[in-house]
Amino acid sequence: MERLEEFHRILAGGRADLHTACQIFDACETVDLESLIGTWRGEEFHTGHPLDGVLKKLNWYGKAFHDAENVDPLLFEGKHGDVFAVDPVPVMDKRKLIKAAGGKARMRMMEFRGRTTATMIYDNLPIHDHFRKVQDGLLFCMMDWKGDKQPYFFLLNKVK
């Protein structure tokens, strides 16, 4: 019980060192593809990664999983509360937000860190987002970007 409380305290704080974040990720349950279907609100989890704080500044909303072949990997919220999908390539290239028509990623079950879990694969970037379940409606996620020195962590809360 004490370990679970500590786990939730760290997640609620939104930050940890890389080692602790990896331990939390590894302790979480795996996720199947069906449980991802829907819209999820994102929240950054800081570990000292260069992307920490970037998505929040851009008004990142989250992700939408329509089916295994169609995922909107980056949703942003406009000034008037409208939520729209964005092409991830210009965002990751540190250019600008360009609205996307249709999904720019897909989902597969993949082995990662010794366990098979739902993974989102970007269509045009060497990035895989791996998902683990903290509790119903809350995921702890690790972005694995080929060539990056450390993973980027974030949380997803189910909206609908």
Report the CATH superfamily.
Answer: GXWXG domain
Low-confidence stretches: none
Helix fraction, binned, reads 10-25%
End-to-end separation? 30 Å
Quote the CATH topology.
Answer: Lipocalin
Mean of residue pLDDT?
Answer: 87
Whole-number count of domains: 1
Task: Provide the CATH architecture.
Answer: Beta Barrel
Rounded to an integer, what's the Rg over CA atoms? 15 Å
Percent strand equals 35-45%
Q: Number of helical segments? A: 4
The H-and-E topology, N to C, reads as HHEEHEEEHEEEEE
What characteristic shape results from the CA principal axes? globular
Largest sheet: 10 strands, antiparallel
Q: Structural class per helix/strand content?
A: alpha+beta
Q: Report the count of strand segments.
A: 10
CATH class group: Mainly Beta
Protein name: DUF4334 domain-containing protein
Domain DUF4334: 103-157
InterPro entries: DUF4334 (IPR025568), GXWXG_dom (IPR025951)
Domain GXWXG: 23-81
Produce a short descriptive summary.
The chain has 160 residues and is of the alpha+beta class.
Core attributes:
about 160 residues; alpha+beta; 10 strands; DUF4334; Lipocalin
Describe it:
Helix content is 19%, strand content 43%. The protein is globular and about 40 Å long. The model has no long low-confidence stretch (mean pLDDT 87). It has a single domain (2-158), classed as Lipocalin. Strands 1, 2, 3, 4, 5, 6, 7, 8, 9 and 10 form a 10-stranded antiparallel sheet that branches. The protein is built from 4 helices and 10 strands; from the N terminus they run H-H-E-E-H-E-E-E-H-E-E-E-E-E. This is DUF4334 domain-containing protein. It comes from Planococcus shixiaomingii. Residues 23-81 form the GXWXG domain.
